[in-house]
Amino acid sequence: MILVTGATGNAGGGVVNGLLELGADVRGLVRPGSEGDLREGAEAAPGDLNDPSSLPLEGVSAVFLLSGYDGIEQSLSLMRDAGVERVVLLSSSAAPTANLDNAVARYHILSERAVQESGLPWTFLRPNSFMSNAYRWLPQLEKGDVIRGPFGDVAISTIHPDDLGAVAARALTAAEHEGQTYRLSGPEALRPGEQVAIMAKYTGRDLRFEAQGNDEARAEMEGQMPKEYVDAFFEFFVDGTVDETTVHPTVKQVTGTESRSFEEWADAHADAFR
Hints:
Blueprint: E1 2-4, H1 10-21, E2 26-30, E3 43-46, E4 62-66, H2 72-82, E5 86-90, H3 103-117, E6 122-127, H4 138-141, E7 146-149, H5 161-173, E8 181-184, H6 192-203, E9 208-211, H7 214-222, H8 227-237, H9 250-255, H10 262-269
Parallel strand pairs: 1-2, 1-4, 2-3, 4-5, 5-6, 6-8, 7-9
């Protein structure tokens, strides 16, 4: 039995898909009341990552773990005591910066450190931004065909959640991936305007992207998240401390299959944007 935390989210949902495709037994950790959102074929287990005592670890051999939750050290101790054989941690492209002054990098770095110190065999996944982040455009698309956003000149080789899930599934089910850190990306780097043009192609809408200036973007983002997180993203994508442009071959190396393109993601999810 493999426990997937965040099992109804973008990343965790992809991991559930990948494990079921391999024929694994999957238990999905979900928030109480959201059991029905879990893909059919997986066992739903209500719990909360911020409450280690709620983790359903009985009979679990491996865990897909999200970063940044309270009590991660206690959670890992409970996993070890329960006989868990390996942990696959969802980390970040920011972890290699080793910058503990950056709020986003910090919680991934500290989560990696906690897993390494737990004594459990581990694999770290450091993906680029997800293709499914395009869902953030939906509120604007309800009002018209113009999408305004930050970092308009930054090309990102976004990753399909199911590609992350396919890599995670193999790391969760085979010892050969223990001790490995995998940087993950999609097959091509696209600027936001290029992503919007692809979405326009598959929705039939006359969509266009308008880049925000840094001052406008910062003001809007500070209304949506703590300032330290805004500062972190500006360090990543304005100062260039994180490289999410480079295309990495890791998905094919691990799974034997080429990574999925943003065109494929847009085609499959176009209905949500029409």
